[in-house]
Design goal:
mainly alpha; 4 helices
Length: 155
Amino acid sequence: MPFFTRAVEQMLLTLWVGGLWITGFIYAPVLFAGYERLQAGDIAGRLFSAMSLTGIVCATLLLGFATARARLRVWRDWRAVVLMMMLVLALIGEFGLAARMRELKLLAVHQSNATPLWAEFGRLHGLSSVLYLAESVLGLMLVALGIRPRLQAGS
C-alpha cells in the first residue's frame, strides 16, 4: 500500500504543478499571441480557473496524505507547509483576485468610460501574476526535492 499512496501523491503533484507551468507559461502566451486580447483573456481566465480548482483538489488530497502519514507532526515537515502555502495562494487567486477581475471585466465591457475599472483590473492582474509565479516556483521546488520526506535509515 505505501507504493500506491506514494504513486498517487506523485501523480497529484505532477498534475498540479505541470498544469500550473503549462497553463501559465505555454498556453496563456500562445493565446495572447494568436487571438484578440479580450478573447484570449476569456479563454486564459477559464484555463486559470480550471487550474486553480485542480490545484485546490490536489492540495487538499496531498495534505490529507501528509497528515495521515505524519499525524500531528505534519507541520514540522517543510513540504506540508509549502503545500499549505500553495493552497492558500490558489484560494486567494481564484476566490479573491480572479473573482473580482471577472466582475471588473463584466462591468468594464458594458461601460463607455471604464478606465478606472481597467486600471483596477490591471493592478489585480499584476498581483495575481506574482502569486501565480510564487505558487509555480513552490510547486517546482516540491517536484525537484520530493513530496515526501526521505526514509531514515532503519525505518
